[in-house]
Amino acid sequence: MSSDGRVGGRRDGGEELTVQLGDISPAGTRHMWQRSAVALADELAVVGAAGRLRGVDVNSGAERWSTDLDTEYVVSLATDPAGEAIFAGCRGENGAVAAVDAASGDVLWTYRTAADLGSPQKESLFFLPYVVDVAGDGERFYAAARRYERGGADAAASGDDGVRTFRSAVYAFDPDGSVAWTYRADASTIALDLREGRVAAAYNRCPGDHQCGMVVLDAATGDARLTWDPGTEGQRRVGDAALLDDGGVAVASHGDYRGYRLDERGGIEWSVDLARPTRIGGETLYAYPNHVRATDDTIAFVTGNTYPEEGREAEGRHPDEHSIAVFDADGIPRWRASVGGWVSELAAAGDRIATPCAQHFRDRDPGAHGLQLFGLREGSVDEVGLDGVGTACALDEERVAVIEEPVEYHDGDAVRGSHRVRVLPRQ
After folding, report:
1. Helix/strand/coil (H, E, C) string of 28-93?
2. Which positions make up the signal peptide (predicted)?
3. Which residue from 362, 412, 413, 416 is spatially nearest to 389, judged by alpha carbons?
4. Which of 230, 290, 362, 410 could form an S-S bond across to 253 if both were Cys, CB 3.0 to 4.6 Å?
């Protein structure tokens, strides 16, 4: 993926908008921690950066409003279907979620998940309470939050200072910010999906009593309708889940590196190998399926970085790392393509999927920085090069927005890119 350096130019007859977002410390080589977010709401690009929300006019680039959320980072955003409110999830000492008026930027209410999950054990990014995902259906907003700890009470009980523990919760919020229900677990929630009265929560690590990689909750009550787990050994379980119109669920499994389509009772309708352990040059290598998106007739899975089964460093690369694989409703392959590098999140609208990416943290290839747009039926339809790493994106029927962050490799002496949002016409 090449970097074309376009700023504020035209793109196939449409205007491209670029807005600088201010200073942020450069991402490092491993660049896998979310620090920014973006959403599209009518004529606004809503950008979360450096603890603030900004509403930017997508036509002029003018800032309509700016709101301080009193947090370190805004990391997840959602809009209600009417476009009247923005729901923000934060990574910070309070692990805050907030509802903001889309027209004015006024904060409607704030909830601090740290009151439930606990305060950070250390003042470093990985230990901060983290609202990993948010969603809204016009009636309520939903959020998934977690906090990580190493050692602590569980370690004292076991005598092992290296014990890793998580506290997590899925929340449903009424329009006034009151909590309608909470689903708690001692596992690491990683993603939410919301559809037709159901909320799916994926758990990528299950080190405690909650030995279940995916839960489907009733959106009205919070009661568990369905639980599912790949049934594999170890803590790794599920990277993402997507609810289907027929009541089923598509699941990206960390436990066995496969993609699944489940029926409404959790039965396996089909599974596909995505990045299973493969012997290459004396190493056994694998990659985690990190993302899944689904329509009524297609399911798309995206894989991440290569890891070795033994040790931490890998000389080779798994042939299916950093790829998007699309299947029809019966599990028949449609197409597979490279996404260029590490994809931190997806955005989807209709039959289009956008993937912002950065280089593999072992290869450090700046040519991989960028954004790709795929059609679920035809494959790649557009790509945009970035100087820095692509970390967040949003997509609607007309536009695609991508957040770029500067990056400085640990073995280099140059900072590449800047902190900015780019909004382009959708292909």
Report:
1. CCCCCCCCEEEEEECCEEEEEECCEEEEEECCCCCEEEEEECCCCEEEEEEECCCCCEEEEEEECC
2. none
3. 416
4. 230
Comparing CA positions, the residue from 148, 96, 155 lying closest to residue 121 is 148
CA torsion 46-31-251-233 (nearest 10°) is -150
- Please enumerate in sequence order all residues whose Cβ is within 8 A of that of 13, keeping only pairs 6 or more positions apart, or say none: 425
User: DSSP character for 219?
Assistant: T
Q: How many CB atoms lie within 10 A of CB 263?
A: 14
Burial code of 310-344, b = ≥16 C-beta within 10 A, e = fewer?
Answer: eeeebeebbebbbbbbbbebeeeebbbeebbbbbb
Which amino acid is residue 273, in one-letter code? D
How far is the C-alpha of 9 from the C-alpha of 408, rounded, in Å?
26
pLDDT 10s digits, 294-351 = 998 999 999 999 999 988 888 899 999 999 999 999 999 999 999 999 999 999 999 9
Place of tokens 């090449």: 2
Give the number of other Cβ atoms within 10 Å of residue 108's Cβ: 16
The per-residue pLDDT for 32 is 63
Residue segments in the chain with a per-residue pLDDT below the cut of 50: 1-13, 155-159
pLDDT value of position 313: 84
The helix/strand/coil state of 164 is strand
- For residue 154, report the phi and psi dihedrals to the nearest 5 degrees: -65, -40
Q: DSSP assignment of 173-216, as one string? A: E-TTS-EEEEEEESSEEEEEEEETTEEEEEEEE--SS---SEEE
- For 28, the token pair is 């490092």
> 227, 211 in Cβ contact below 8 A?
no
Beta partners for residue 367, in sequence order: none
Query: What was the pLDDT predicted at 153?
Result: 56
23 φ, ψ to 5°?
-75, 145
Q: Can you tell me whether residue 231 is helix, strand or coil?
A: coil
| Backbone torsions φ then ψ of 163, nearest 5 degrees | -65, 130
Q: Could you count the other beta carbons within 10 Å of the beta carbon of residue 129?
A: 27
| H helices present in 205-306, as ranges | none
Count Cβ atoms within 10 A of the Cβ of residue 391 and give its class: 0-12 exposed, 13-18 middle, 19 or more buried.
buried
Written as six digits, the tokens of 412 are 């280099």
Question: 265: which DSSP letter?
Answer: T
Structure tokens given for 249: 């669920």
Q: What is the pTM of this model?
A: 0.93
For residue 288, the Cα-to-chain-centroid distance in whole angstroms is: 14
